[in-house]
Amino acid sequence: MFARTERLLLRPGWQEDAPALARAIGDEMIVRNLSRAPWPYDEAHARAFLGGWTEGNPSRFLMIQRTASAPRLIGCIGMDRMESGDVELGYWVARPYWGLGYATEAGRHMIDLARTLGIRRLVASHFTDNPASGAVLRKLGFRPTGRHPERASLGRSQTAPTIEYAREIAAPGNDGDGEDSPVAMPGLRWPDTLREDWRLAAA
């Protein structure tokens, strides 16, 4: 599964992406705002992250900036099922590309994908000292829930408060006012027969 937006190619990650991924995310200002990324982040961490990608994450993508020359890996975005049963939207963008609208652009695709997958509600959160992420979420239609759970980050010395958001996703063909029903995240495998085409499309 891959998608093109106005400026991005969203595609799955492969082991050969590990060096570029490690360079893009290897910034303490990025990792401190993520709840699960290790710090310091190196290529071995990138390979471990990419290693489980194809088996159970059909809704996780690398953000590849499409350019007239070589494309650039500039971030990652995805949806993951939490222990609570909620489906959480998460993303990060490399620092040189902050403030350029890439997270919002990719986020719009993720909302469309959630609708297609039958996910009726998304949650997201950001640390209180990262208001730029809140601005992205509000542009995507998320609203604060009023909850401020403490979350850990390996880029911080201790847990820190977050601001939680949620967004209802209307099912195709209705206004989204019906009751939510739990939908399992599908277990899809990336078709190996298309991998070469995807690599060419991103290279």
Radius of gyration: 17 Å
β-strand number: 9
CATH superfamily: Gcn5-related N-acetyltransferase (GNAT)
The CATH class, by name, is: Alpha Beta
What share of the residues lie within helices? 25-40%
- By DSSP (H or I, 4+ residues per run), the number of helices equals 7
Largest sheet: 9 strands, mixed
First-residue to last-residue Cα separation: 17 Å
Mean pLDDT: 83
Summarize the structure in words:
The chain is of the alpha+beta class and 203 residues long. The chain has a single domain (3-172), classed as Gcn5-related N-acetyltransferase (GNAT) (Aminopeptidase). The chain is 28% helix and 24% strand. It is built from 7 helices and 9 strands. It has helices spanning 18-25, 28-31, 43-51, 53-56, 102-117, 131-139, 195-201, and strands at 3-4, 8-11, 60-65, 72-81, 87-93, 121-127, 143-144, 150-151, 160-168. Strands 1, 2, 3, 4, 5, 6, 7, 8 and 9 form a 9-stranded mixed sheet that branches. α1 (18-25) packs across α3 (43-51). This is Protein N-acetyltransferase, RimJ/RimL family.
